[in-house]
Specification:
This protein is α/β, with parallel strands linked by helices. It has seven helices and five strands; from the N terminus they run βααβααβααβαβ. α7 (about 130-135) links the parallel β4 and β5. It is globular, with a radius of gyration of 15 Å. The two termini are about 15 Å apart.
């Protein structure tokens, strides 16, 4: 199985919360391929910084999470490089859906990066209900790890 993992789902590997158990199962399946976009690197740091600000985790816990994440990027996760095609696709997604549903810019970029993998049977993994709704509109197979 090939998974494209959005940041909202990936963070569950580095901080115990709803959906962590599902993400651990995906991560431990060594037969599966785990894709993230390079945008996820920035977003994960942002998500951890927010957890420090809101006192969900300590700075030390965030540092440990970042070290684990870097190791996972080197050993387990495939980091997809974004290019102008992804930005064009993201713009098209916003043009198609943004007037009817809330589709944030970075979410559109994540979804566009996943759609670029469409030649493969890719499962989009996101804990963002709004983004999952756009996946539904795009006929993209998805799962929310909080509600598998």
């Amino acid at each position: 199985m090939i998974y494209f993992i959005d940041t909202s789902a990936l963070v569950k590997l580095y901080h115990q919360e709803a959906g962590t158990e599902y993400m651990d199962t995906i991560f431990q399946d060594t037969e599966s391929t785990l894709l993230i976009s390079e945008l996820t690197i920035v977003e994960l740091h942002s998500a951890l910084a927010k957890k420090i600000r809101t006192r969900e985790i300590s700075s030390v816990a965030a540092e440990v999470a970042v070290k684990r994440f870097r190791m996972d990027c080197a050993q387990r996760l495939i980091v997809l490089i974004l290019d102008s095609t992804a930005l064009v696709r993201a713009t098209e997604l916003i043009d198609r859906h943004g007037k009817m549903v809330a589709l944030r810019t970075l979410d559109a970029i994540q979804l566009a990066a996943c759609q670029a993998q469409r030649d493969n049977d890719v499962l989009f993994v996101s804990a963002d209900d709004q983004l999952c709704g756009v996946c539904r509109l795009e006929n993209l197979t998805f799962v929310n790890p909080e509600k598998p």
